[in-house]
Amino acid sequence: MARSCSGSPETAKRRSPGTASRYAQWCRIDAAYFAATTTKGPNGLLSLTTATVDTAGTLANLDPFIEARYAGGANGAKLTHWLTSPATAEALSKLKTASDSNQPLLQFVEDGITVPGLPVLTSTRVDAATVAWGVDSTQESYVLRKGTTVERFPSVTNDGQYVRAISRIRLGFLNPAGVARLYDAP
To answer: What is the C-alpha to C-alpha distance for residues 52 and 181, in angstroms, rounded to an integer?
Structure first.
């Protein structure tokens, strides 16, 4: 088990998720996943011909999400997640049961919110025109090519280590028509 500078295994455990998150950002996997094309990288969600739902620029209710679930189902997918920006997740959390009510339409669950029965995952890489992506995780694949390397180098200027990771990835969308994009059509 890795130990942190303080020698406490518990501290190392708390630091690990942050390190993994930073690594994912450094690798720009999220950016490639949500992009149309990536230089020297895989094509992402915006490159697909997907089922689309126009939100008409507003989130007054959950009807677009229900429509997207049926659109995905009509194309052979059983959506498992919504992918949104943090701002959209916050806007969804603020929806009320009625215009004159202060009761929230959605309830927080252990790991966030669910919108028509599906968990909401957030990423800052969702483009501004997209409200949400509805995806079926069983119809997507992430391929990590053999030969991925992680190297450590001592830092001579401070008491630490530099880490360099090199990997080749490929994103596979097995049923592009089953992916549902909710967006504000121009």
So the answer is: 5
SS3 content of the chain, % helix, strand, coil (to 5): 30, 30, 40
Structure tokens at 101: 């009510």
Indicate the number of domains in the chain.
1
Contacts of 1 (CB under 8 A, 6+ apart): 9, 12
Q: Is residue 139 domain-resident?
A: yes
What 3 state SS string does 15-32 have?
HHHHHHHHHHHHHCHHHH
Residue 94 included in any domain: yes
With respect to residue 18, please indicate whether it lies within any of the assigned structural domains.
Answer: no
Strand pairing report for 149-155 and 140-144: unpaired
Q: What's the CATH number where 87 sits?
A: 3.30.2320.10
- pLDDT digit string, tens, across residues 16-61: 555 555 555 555 777 888 888 877 778 888 888 888 999 988 888 8
Note the pLDDT tens digit of each residue in 135-176.
999 998 888 777 778 888 777 677 777 777 777 778 888 899
What pTM value is reported for the model?
Answer: 0.76
